[in-house]
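Sequence only, no structure available. Ideas?
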Amino acid sequence: MSIEVQNLLTEKVRKFGASDGSADFQQVFTDAVNYALGDIDNRLLISTTAIDPDSQTIDLDEQRYKPCLSALVDYYISVQGQWSLKNSEELYRMGQRKLVDLQTRYIQTLDLGVRFGDLSE
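Reply:
I predicted one. Tokens follow.
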């Protein structure tokens, strides 16, 4: 199931104490999501589609990717200026840890076709 942009936006509006209708917050949120998607793309070597303010969904599995995406979005919103949480460096470390966990789980799903003791093709 894809990640619903509106649900993620509502979560961040509540967390950062922003106004639900704030065009400024919505733009910062959109930029933060796209930066976070870029981090996920670069770490996992997958391809996601950037969102715009009218996007409905993010083309990632919600159960697998949302915790990481959410942590990275928190960091990127926090460092962009007006809306901030207390410790952006801790947010960065948390986002990176979740990204490493995601990468580890992703690598475990890869079948490289090599088995111990079997060199045949």
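The chain has one domain: 2-106.
Hope that gets you unstuck.
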